[in-house]
Amino acid sequence: MARLGSVQVPMAACAPGSASAVPATTVTSRHSALVRVTHWITTLCFLALLVSGVEIVISHPRFYWGETGNVLTTPLFKLPIPSSRALVPTGYGYVLPDQNGWSRYLHFQAAWVAVLTGLLYAISGLFTGHFWKNLLPARAELSWRRFSIAVANHLRFQRPSEAEAWSYNVLQRLTYLFVIFVLFPLVIWTGLAMSPAFVSAFPATVNLLGGQQSARTIHFFVSLSLLLFLLVHVVMVCLAGFRSRMRAMITGRSGTHTEPI
Amino acid sequence: MSDLSRRKLIITGLAATAGVSGLGVAARMAQKYGLVPPDHGGIYGLGETLTYASQRLLTRHSLAREFPRSQISKPPLANEIPPLTEAFKRLQAGGFADWRLTVNGMVDRAASFSLAQLKSYPSRSQITQLVCEEGWSYIAEWIGVPLSHVLDVVGIHPQARYIVYFSIDPDWWESIDMADAIHPQTFLAYGMNGNELPVGNGGPLRMRLPRQLGYKSVKYITHLTVTDSLKRFGKGLGSASSDGGYAWYAGI
User: Fold this and answer.
1) Is residue B55 part of a domain?
2) Which residues of B fall within a CB distance of 8 Å from A105?
3) In a domain, B139, yes or no
4) Do A197 and B55 touch (CB under 8 A)?
5) Cα separation of B217 and B206, whole Å?
6) How far apart are CA B211 and CA A196, in angstroms?
7) What is the pLDDT along chain A (261 residues), one digit of tens a residue?
8) Is residue B124 situated within a structural domain?
9) Does the CA dihedral B66-B68-B69-B71 come out positive or negative?
10) Range B159-163 contact pairs with CB under 8 angstroms and sequence separation of 24 or more
11) CATH number of the domain that B239 lies in?
């Protein structure tokens, strides 16, 4: 609350030129430079992985469970889309052009950049205390009451309070932790479990998942979850104030209270 | 210029110099230890080089998973194949009695093998998975002669770095590095699931490379060349797939 108090300084104190009178919160970054840079690199990589991933799926829009699967085996499910291969019976009378060459190149290049960026983020986050300071919910926040209030506020599309512009609520914290420490590792793991060379050195990576086709199916669902996260994330940014949130993630400055300056 | 900004400038300059020379040293080391793929140029060269170099370091001697006989896919899948060439049909009409595998390049004894000669060498079998870059897969038993045995027969020169292999269909040729060429699971396969290798699966002779995706396992092999450089083959990217926009290394 002390921090909140410092936000509500009289406007006169924030007059241009009187830099010493500017409250600490207006000069402190909402997001550190490292968080901002890794955020946008990850965004670019995710979009590249998404587009190339969709192109690769189009060459065989069927999913299986277990070790093997092909057009002669019963799929777990099929996507109701045309394919870029004549081999796949889709019910459509046409075959889409093959885009797998550049898609596969782009997919793995973006994966490399994303993984290296993620490593930089994770290691620096451990050193700076970013995870336990900004993302780990306080014990008090983990009560059902607080949790249900946060959910209800989200469902009512309530704009965040001034305090929330400076920190994350419990729902955000749990979601970000889930994405960073569950979905990202899982999508990397299942991706590597599809590599015939990688699994020759580390067979447990695919055996634990129940087979190469199971890994592919899980990879698809984890990717869908990440896409769902991205969509909700963007909607929330728009609801909370697109310009101020974008400014916070690009320049580091945050909050409507800094606008008069 | 204040002291602070001068110090900043010097530190940044030193860091940039160290970074650039570090990258230079890394590139030379990678080249020396054969960690740079032939398709390292272009906008995707970075990712491709990282993938090939790291997998080559991790998987030089690792063996692809082998499966129990009960896991062999039934019925066996035969992928769609391009129309068979006239040359292939002529040899097929003669029961492949005149099929030849010619081997030349950086070898002591260039040779031409009949299928009967290849089958007279100690045969090996493996029950491994074939994974296509599209996403489907199947498990089969592959019977053949390890490529390393054929390379021993012809005697390869110490400076040899790649084996380039050609299908009877001129549109299909690929190459692999020596780590994959002498790998015990790299076969010239002539049998499948206890029988002759069906034409639909690449018979009478197919390269089989279980640690890479299916497109490296070229069908209807008639010719091998041992070389130290891929520059004079096609566009110099190492394979017909690379010339067509696909990655040369297909371990992922």
Assistant:
1) no
2) 44, 47-48, 245, 247
3) yes
4) yes
5) 7
6) 5
7) 333 333 333 333 333 333 444 444 444 678 888 999 999 999 999 999 999 999 999 999 999 999 999 999 999 999 999 999 998 999 899 999 999 999 999 999 999 999 999 999 999 999 998 888 888 888 777 888 888 888 888 788 777 666 666 778 888 888 999 999 999 999 999 999 999 999 999 999 999 999 999 999 999 999 999 999 999 999 988 988 888 888 889 988 865 544 433
8) yes
9) negative
10) B159/B106, B159/B228, B160/B105, B160/B106, B160/B226, B160/B227, B160/B228, B161/B34, B161/B227, B161/B228, B161/B229, B162/B226, B162/B227, B162/B228, B162/B229, B162/B230, B162/B238, B163/B224, B163/B225, B163/B226, B163/B227
11) 3.90.420.10
A207: distance to nearest CA of chain B, Å?
A: 10
Which residues from A are below 8 Å from B68, CB to CB?
none
In a domain, B226, yes or no: yes
Structural domain for B113, as ranges: 66-243
Helix, strand, coil percent values for chain B (each to nearest 5): 35, 25, 45
Helix (H, G, I), strand (E, B) or coil at B107: strand
Q: Which residues of B touch A195 (CB under 8 A)?
A: 55, 251-252
Asked if A201 lies within 8 A of B59 by C-beta distance, the reply is yes
Nearest to A68 by CA among A60, A59, A79: A60
**CA gap A169, A138 in Å, rounded:** 10
Distance from the A70 Cα atom to the nearest Cα atom in chain B, whole angstroms: 5
Task: Answer whether B226's CB lies under 8 Å from B182's CB.
Answer: no
The residue written with tokens 């998987």 in the block is B59
By residue range, what is the domain housing residue A231?
136-261
Q: What is the DSSP letter of B226?
A: E
Type of residue found at A116: L
- For residue B73, the chain A residues in CB contact (below 8 A) are 68, 70, 72-73
